[in-house]
Amino acid sequence: MSSGPWTDLERPPLRQAALRSALAVGADTWRTIDVVAETASTNADLVARAQAGEEAGAVLIADSQNGGRGRLGRAWTVPPRSALTFSVLLRPAAPVETWGWLSLVAGVAVTDALVRVCGLPASLKWPNDVLVPATGPAPADYAGGRLKIAGILAEASGPAVVIGIGLNVTQDASELPVPTATSLRLAGSATTDRDTVLRAVLRALARRLGEFERAVTTGDGAGRSGVAAAYRERCSTIGATVRAELPGGISRVGLADGVDDDGRLLLRLPGGSTQALAAADVVHVRNPETA
């Protein structure tokens, strides 16, 4: 029996020609779009292309990614054609000190698409995990009854930045890596067509990145841009009691009091002081006394 990409008609391969036609003309476009059947990591591939001189605006999509990485170098794999795994190459005009916002901007773009096309009330867990409401009991002490549906990883390479996005689409519960994850199918999305969702995400990403660049290069500042306001509005971490796991094995519990103009999470500690976190693993804590 054939085991080609069209064997499972519920998980068809993406069509490069159709995506290029849809996303290379008009507003919110990308310079070039490539679809590959399989690769280890779209981020690693685009970083190599950036180092070889590739211009901004390239998108690389893999129907199967067998060596993907999440934050802190964690492995991330999914069944072939069950998710959207792709990366985009940027050469930002924004000052390098604002680049920390780029992955947050990407998170806003993903929520734009999930709300508009999928009908899901998506939110963000700082810094850039995309969450949707659980359709059944959620694991205790995670994120207020919400589960992770997408993750984002940004990597700088000289004057270039590569942003990778992994969005779960048709996985069932047995195919998810952790109990705190979900997929569009399990969340009750209005569509699980990967082509439709991908187009919506890439258009939203182009639009939000353009908005960010205009704000920064005209002097408004990253933290005062419209996309930063949208991030704060959609960030479910703000206002929650959280446990932050910091580098070096340090743990802090406090109230997430906001996100500052540098994209850092402001953690109000029990003694009343505030710590600005640039990097941490954050868990939303339902019962602070058991953290």
Automatic annotation (TrEMBL):
Q: What is this protein called?
A: biotin--[biotin carboxyl-carrier protein] ligase
| PANTHER family named among the record's database cross-references | BIOTIN PROTEIN LIGASE (PTHR12835), BIOTIN--PROTEIN LIGASE (PTHR12835:SF5)
Matching entries from SUPFAM superfamilies are given as: Class II aaRS and biotin synthetases (SSF55681)
CDD domains tied to this protein: BPL (cd16442)
Task: Write down the InterPro entries for this protein, in alphabetical order.
Answer: aa-tRNA-synth_II/BPL/LPL, Biotin_CoA_COase_ligase, BPL_C, BPL_LPL_catalytic
List the EC numbers from the record.
6.3.4.15
Q: List, in alphabetical order, the Gene Ontology terms for molecular function in this entry.
A: biotin--[biotin carboxyl-carrier protein] ligase activity
Residues in BPL/LPL catalytic domain copies: 17-213
